[in-house]
Amino acid sequence: MNKKLLSLILIIFLVAILDYPLRSPSSTNIHPNARWQQNVSARNCRARKCRVTGNRQGNGINQLSNPWGLYVDDDQTIYVADTSNHRIVEWKRGATSGQVVAGGNGQGSGDHQLYNPYDVIIDKERDSLIICDTSNGRVVRWPRRNGTSGETIISNIYCRGLTMDENGSLYVTDDGKAEVRRYRRGESQGTVVAGGNGRGNRLDQLSYPRYVFVDRDHSVYVSDGNNHRVMKWMEGAKQGIVVAGGQGKGNDLTQLSGPQGVVVDQLGTVYVAD
Predict the structure, then answer these.
(1) 180 CB neighbour count, 10 Å cutoff
(2) Count of H helices and E strands in the chain?
(3) What is the CATH number for 194?
(4) Per the omega criterion (within 30 degrees of 0), is the bond before 25 cis?
(5) What is the pLDDT of residue 108?
(6) Is the separation of the CB atoms in 87 and 104 below 8 Å?
(7) Which of 128, 187, 190, 227 could form a disulfide with 181 if both were Cys (CB 3.0 to 4.6 A apart)?
(8) Do the Cβ atoms of 270 and 221 come closer than 8 Å?
(9) What's the pLDDT score for residue 201?
(10) Rounded distance, CA 50 to CA 52, Å?
């Protein structure tokens, strides 16, 4: 199954069993007796909770093209990084079509454009979207309501995933530098909190980090794509520990293959889109 679809299904599954928004902050409360819901699809996940497109690939307002990152807010509105359409689309609960809230002006590097955005979150305090504008090598902030252009807040970064903790600190994966950085409010340089020692498979290294999750203890979980593992870096640690995979690429239950989305519940259970 396509890994992008698996990432969507992972998040849709969590939405279907939670009454909490995802990644706002980056923590997840899953009921201890929760079970995987069979036959959950990207078209209809617990109808009273969420609905996203099941139409064919395209650029219509009821279509997506190679969607990657996804964010669900308090009122169950879904924000999708519609990567190949170079836009962020908002789908309100129960809607049959979306609304472009960022980009959508063709591929490009202008302030009003995006180029292969891979992830999106909401900064509630500033009522804005924060977007991995991946192929433009930047992270942009875009007004959440009626925004016509964005503001570059981080440059020279190949961002694939981002999240925010309860203090408003932003965590961003950098595919090119094989690291995750934390940016506290007002910081411009940030601090390396995972990786940053070159691309590799040592415990102090990452190789093509994808998505990131931060728990209440500020431990960083990152899907380490080319190492086929999920790593946990405790706050202040110099190296991480493998919490999923790490047994080489494969389809055995002890293995992963280019993992993408990652979420951790309050019990420490790791959910991974493999």
Answers:
(1) 29
(2) 1, 18
(3) 2.120.10.30
(4) yes
(5) 97
(6) yes
(7) 190
(8) yes
(9) 98
(10) 7
Q: What is the pLDDT along the chain (274 residues), one digit of tens a residue?
A: 455 544 554 544 444 433 333 454 455 565 555 554 444 333 333 223 334 556 789 999 999 999 999 999 998 999 999 999 999 999 999 898 999 999 999 999 999 999 999 999 999 999 999 999 999 999 999 999 888 999 999 999 999 999 999 999 999 999 999 999 999 998 889 999 999 999 999 999 999 999 999 999 999 999 999 999 999 999 999 999 999 999 999 999 999 999 999 999 989 999 999 9
The radius of gyration computed from the CA coordinates of the chain, to the nearest angstrom, equals 17
- Residue 46 sits at the vertex; the CA angle it makes with 23 and 79, to the nearest 5 degrees, is 35
Contacts of 158 (CB under 8 A, 6+ apart): 134, 137, 174, 175, 176, 177
- What is the DSSP secondary-structure string of 87-103? EEEEE-TT-SS-EEEEE
Query: Nearest 5°: phi and psi at 234?
Result: -70, 155
Residue 254, Cβ neighbours under 10 Å: how many? 10
Question: What integer pLDDT is reported at residue 27 of this predicted model?
Answer: 52
Q: Which residue, among 119, 199, 218, has the nearest Cα to 209 in the 3D structure? A: 199
CA dist., res. 129 & res. 179, Å (int): 22
Domain count, the chain: 1
User: 113 with 106: CB under 8 angstroms?
Assistant: yes
Please give the single-letter amino acid code of residue 75. Answer: D
- List the domain range (segments joined by +) for residue 111: 3-272
The DSSP letter of residue 203 is: T
Residue pointed to by tokens 């530098």:
177
Distances, alpha carbon 16 to alpha carbons 34, 40, 162, 244, in Å: 10, 9, 22, 23
If one counts every other C-beta atom within 10 angstroms of the C-beta of residue 195, the result is 28
- Asked if 212 and 221 count as a contact pair (C-beta separation under 8 A), the reply is yes
Q: How far is CA 271 from CA 209, 243, 264, in A?
A: 16, 11, 6
